[in-house]
Structures are given as structure tokens and as C-alpha cells.
Automatic annotation (TrEMBL):
Belongs to the MacroD-type family. Zn-Macro subfamily. It catalyses: 4-O-(ADP-D-ribosyl)-L-aspartyl-[protein] + H2O = L-aspartyl-[protein] + ADP-D-ribose + H(+). InterPro entries: Macro_dom (IPR002589), Macro_dom-like (IPR043472). Pfam families: Macro (PF01661). CDD domains: Macro_OAADPr_deacetylase (cd02908). Residues 75-263 form the Macro domain. This is Protein-ADP-ribose hydrolase.
Amino acid sequence: MELGDEWMMTQTDRLHFLISYMQQEKNIAQSVPDTFAERFEVFRGLANERPAQKVSREFLDVQDAFLSEYNAEGITEFESLSPGDKQLYIWQGDITTLKIEAVVNAANAEMLGCLIPNHNCIDNIIHTKAGAELRLECADIMKNQGRKEAVGRAKITSAYNLPSEYIIHTVGPVVQGGKVSPMKQELLAKCYRSCLELADENNIRSIAFCSISTGVFGYPKEEAAGTAVETVKQYLAETGSEIDVVFNVFGTDDLKIYENLLT
């Protein structure tokens, strides 16, 4: 493929190339579906389970051309949002479509993204839309660290093909049976504070938080939201930070929870 040819391909053709490449890596011979929707699901599944191993420049060029166009639809500019309480914002939508300096990813301890094909957790969706480079950067971070990521800490990476500039990854606490211990609450608060500290260290002026630990990690939503808002407010008051903070919600129930806390 000649340099620049990836920009002449259709989105469906790009998916065919990407799927075929990853199938060849796994030494499997399967037909590529005809429709865009079916091809995207196959591409996503293969990308989700692909390990953090080197990939050709050709693959990355086609992938980036595909994701650049795919992610361009439905973008929301942070500047279009109105604060609910000084520097605090609530926004309902897909965090991967928010154009803001940094978004927070609810990661797992391996910090390599969700490896379950087509899983709908935020970690999976962020890695899917950011591209293979994100897993490679995370793998370098973890290799240098030499151990799994502790709950409550945070790491920063480029956002690659997302409309944001950075991704801040944090591992939240797991809650079983819906009962939150004081230690779990403290660890969740530490997640928010660690992300804010890292953002300020990197001169980031706006950040969007997903609802950390409230998905498969089982943290009750109302309690998590209360800890999130309290921790962020306390951090801003103690540090004098000027960072703007967006609480990203997806469902209507989550939206009401945050509205009750901030309006």
C-alpha cells in the first residue's frame, strides 16, 4: 500500500484491511462480513483481545484513518457545557465523544484495557476508540512499573484517536454485595484525588470523570456519586485548583443522582 492510500479507502475497506491483518496474526482464516456494522463488531472484538505486541506502521496508518473518521461523529465540545456549581459540570453522553483535555478511564489492575471481545465496559470502549497504540503505551508503563496497578492510583497516557488529549487511568475498588466499607470509600476517594493531582501536575485545565467502580466493580451508584462530588469539592477547596471537572453520566438515573448533589 502506498503512503497516503489509507485516506483514499472507504471505511468499510479499512475495516476489511484491519480485520484481515489481525486474523493473519492469529493464523485464522475466516470470511470478512459484508456490512459495515458486522465488520465493526468483528474488528472491535479482534482489537479487544489483541495483546500488547508490536504492530506495523501500515496497520496503524489504516487504523488511525478509520478511527479519525469514525470518532468525528457526534463530538461534544467541553466549551459548550454550562457548569452546575462553579467548576463542576454534569454531562450525559458517551465520554469518548467529549472533546476535553482529559478523560478518566476506569481501568483494571493490569492496566491493559478490557480483553473481553465487544464488552461494554468503559475500559473496553476507550481502548477500542483510542486504538492499538494505547494498549502499547500502557504495556510500557506497566513493564517499567514491574507490578500491577494499586487501587486508588492514577496513570496518564495520550488519548490517541479520541477527541480528548489525555486519558487518566485509575483502578477503583471492588464492592461485593452492595455493602461499602469505610476502606472502600476511602479508596474510591483516593481514585478521584489521584486523578486530579495528576491532571494538575500536567497542567490539564479540564477533566471528565466516568463513574468509577459503578459498573462491573459493583460500587452502589448513589454512594459512589456522593464520594465523587465530596472528594472533588474538597480537593478544589484545599488546593485552589482551577481545573474544571465534568461528571460524566450515561443513564437517566445516574443523571438524577448527580443533579440532586450539584443543583
